[in-house]
Design a protein that fits this description.
alpha+beta; 16% strand
Length: 146
């Protein structure tokens, strides 16, 4: 997981943290994970199809988390979500017609890394935890390969 650099003091005190600024836990992480840079902007791709309630639900939750991250900084701050309709591309339709919604993230090279499918009834907060865990697991796999 990525540690975010806090802007305010602990417990809602509205002054910058000065005495703890050199502590390593408060600095943004810069380690590379699966070609993904921790603390950078994530680019998510959601494969959907028309008239798919599961797709619409996941899209709404993801967009809500990304919008909320503008006001409540998290690892999703600056993230983007691109929805792709599989019915517009025969290759996507052949590969994913029975498995949508499919959520992927773009790595540093621009290739897609498919994330584990979240359960449809997850709340937005649990979806955020699911994404954090999935991205952290991808980082661990990359470190083992190197």
């Amino acid at each position: 997981m990525c540690a975010q650099q806090p802007l305010l003091g602990q417990r809602g005190i509205s002054r910058p943290i000065r005495s703890f600024a050199r502590h390593t836990l408060l600095r943004p992480a810069t380690s590379r994970r699966q070609g993904l840079v921790c603390g950078s902007q994530y680019n998510f791709v959601l494969y959907t199809k028309p008239e798919c309630p599961l797709c619409d639900g996941l899209k709404d939750k993801m967009q809500g988390l990304i919008d909320r991250a503008q006001f409540m900084p998290s690892f999703l701050t600056g993230a983007t979500l691109e929805a792709r309709d599989i019915s517009t591309n025969e290759e996507w339709q052949g590969a994913m017609r029975l498995s949508v919604p499919v959520l992927a993230v773009l790595d540093a090279q621009g290739s897609e890394v498919v994330l584990p499918r979240p359960q449809p009834r997850l709340t937005a907060e649990r979806l955020q935890r699911h994404l954090e865990e999935a991205l952290a697991a991808l980082g661990g796999e990359q470190q083992q390969q190197q």
